[in-house]
Specification:
With 290 residues, the protein is of the alpha/beta class. The chain is built from eight helices and eight strands; from the N terminus they run ααββαβαβαβββααβα. Strand 3, helix 4 and strand 4 form a beta-alpha-beta unit.
Length: 290
Amino acid sequence: MKYIRIASRAVAGLIAIPVITGLLALQRVVGPLTGNYKTIPSIIYGIMRKLIGYKVEFNAASAPLVKGKQTWFLVNHLSGADAFIVGGALDGSFVARDDVMRWPVLAEAARSIKMIGVRRKSKFNDQSRGKIAKNFNEGYNTIMFPEGSTSDGKKIFLFHAAFLTLLYGDTAVDKKKKRVTLQKDVVVQPVAIRVKSVDGKDAIGNDELRNLYSLPGHNTLKRKWKRAQGRNITLELTLLPPLDPKDFKDAKELANKAALDIASIVNPGQTIFEKAVIPGYTPAKPARKK
């Protein structure tokens, strides 16, 4: 049965490729004309989830989704598939690595869903903040994975605050170094992802089952093969109460509060956060003492 399931998914994937390609081409026209970057991408995310066997549920204890204000969603990061999970449930533009915008095929897909490409070296943070400010100013929400890297989902890594300083007046510029001013009132809403079940089996606290979705060690071929044999993985999203930047003294305090709120769902009791190793990230050098 498991091999039939794998074969069926392979065939379905081949059929879905031209469908998804057509939808992306349509979105390239519809997006700029209508300003709608939600409907067609949500259909694409739904197709992808169906093919892979992912289901999404909202925790009954979730806070209400913010409405009426531009929202910066901060989400913990377990897998590359988080985009399918979060993208279909939340309305916003993803902050992603800038190199994605240069990959063949994927670059066009990223542009069609209004992805925000940012560079990981800290010297480009002002330009990254400029892109995010522009996205908010145009009336779109932003979705970001502030840990900067995937984890095994067992704990939360330190949330990086370099982009969040936009909310506290830090410099934001465009490619020509022209200042970009944030013109919207933005609130931050933390969102927790956790693996709820695998093939109907409770995955909460079960490392083996959770790791069929998460990316410890960037995954292995054996784990991918085992995942492909399964029927479905259910992911649970928990919306936490929104955070008003005005209630925090700076971006670090805001980021830490968001991390604590998400940890209360993912890893209750966690209060200390270690930095994740982020490939390609170069931290700013400390200023020399005079």
